[in-house]
Amino acid sequence: MMSSIVAPEAIDLLGLDEPALNSLLAEWGEKPFRGRQLRQWLHQRRVYDLEQMTDLAKSLRARLVEQANIRLPEAIFDRESSDGTRKWLLTSGGGNAVETVYIPERDRGTLCVSSQVGCALDCRFCSTGKQGFNRNLTAGEIIGQLHYATQALEHEGRGRRVTNVVMMGMGEPLANFRHVVAATNLMVDPFAWGLSRRRVTLSTVGLVPALYRLAEQSNISLAVSLHAPNDALRDEIVPINKKYPLSELIPACAHYCDRTPHRCIYWEYVMLDGVNDHQAHADQLIELLRNVPSKINLIPFNPFPGSDYRCSPRDRITRFADRLQRAGFITTIRRTRGQDIDGACGQLVGQVINLRNRGRGSAAVSGN
Ligand code: SAH
Hints:
By secondary structure, the chain is an alpha/beta fold. It has 2 domains: 11-69, Orthogonal Bundle (DNA polymerase, domain 1); 75-360, TIM Barrel. 37% of the residues lie in helices and 19% in strands. It is built from 13 helices and 14 strands. Helix 10 runs parallel beside helix 11. The longest helix is centred in the middle third of the chain and has 18 residues, at 139-156. S-adenosyl-L-homocysteine (SAH) binds next to strand 10 and strand 12.
C-alpha cells in the first residue's frame, strides 16, 4: 500500500482580515493584540519580512515563518496613459493575470481592483465575460493589488496615492463573496488600510441572495450594474437577470440602503447605441428607481474587437442624463480614461493572452 503525506497549505497571511487572524492567533494561544500588530506591519508599514516585525514574540515569528506565506503579485504589463491612468496586469504565477487600474483625479486617486480571473456572467457588452471564467482570486490576491499599486505609486515619487478603491475590475465580486468581503474588510480596517467605507465601493451585477448577505456583513458603498430599465431588455444584456429579475433586485438594493448607513445606491448604466438609450428607457428608469435612494452613473460604452454594440452618440447621452436629472436623480456621465493604453475593461488581458497564444513572449506583450 502507498501512503502519502500531504503538506498543509501555507496560510495566506496577507488575506487574513481581523476575524480570521484573531481566530488563528487564538488557536495558537496568542493574545488578540498580536493580530493588530501583524495587520499594522503588513498593511500600514508594508513590511513583508516576518523577521523584521520586531515587536512580535520570537516564537510567534518562528511559527509564522514556518506555516504562513506573504505573497505579492508581479506585473507582467505596466503602462501609463497620456491622461495619467496607470494600468497593470498582475499575476501571482500559474499563467493567470488580472487587471488593476489607477485612475488619478484632481481630488482623489481611485484604484480599480479585480475579484476573479475572467467572469462567468457573460454580460453581452463586457470583454471580460467573453473570456469565460477561470478562477476566484484569494483574499490575499485581491488586497495584494492594493499593496502592489501603493508601492508602485510610492516608487514614482510624484505624490500620487490610492484614496479610493472600486471593485470594478475583472470578475463578479459577489460570486467570490468570502474572499471579497475579507479583502474589503482589510481596506476599511483602521489597523490595516483604514479607508472610509464611503471610499470603498463594490460593483455588482446584483446576485440577490449575496446582496442580503452583504448587508449583514459589510457596510461599504454599493454600485449596481443595471444597464436596462426593464426585464426583457436586461435579460438580453445582463443574462443573470433571468435568475434575479428586477422585481427581486430592486428590493434587495433598497434593503442594503436601509440596513447600512448609506444614503444611496450607485447605479451603473452603460450607454448602448439604439439599445437602451431612448427617452422611453429614461422614463422607465425613473419609474423603476422611484423609491430607492439613487445616484445614476451613465457609462459611455467602450468598444472592443468583436463587440456587438456601439456607444450612444454624445448628445443622446446628454439628453438621457438631462431627463433623469429633471426627475430629481443625481446623474453623472463617466469620463472615459486611459483609452490610449487599451479600450474596454478586460480587453488588455484578452490582448496579452491572445498574443501569447500566438507564441510571442511577454517582452513583446509588455511593449515598454
Ligand atoms: N461584475 C461587476 C464588476 C465588474 S464590471 C459588475 O458587473 O458590476 C465594472 C463595470 O464596468 C460594470 O458596470 C460593467 O457593466 C462596466 N463595463 C464592462 N464592460 C464595459 C464596456 N465595454 N464599456 C463600458 N462599461 C463596461
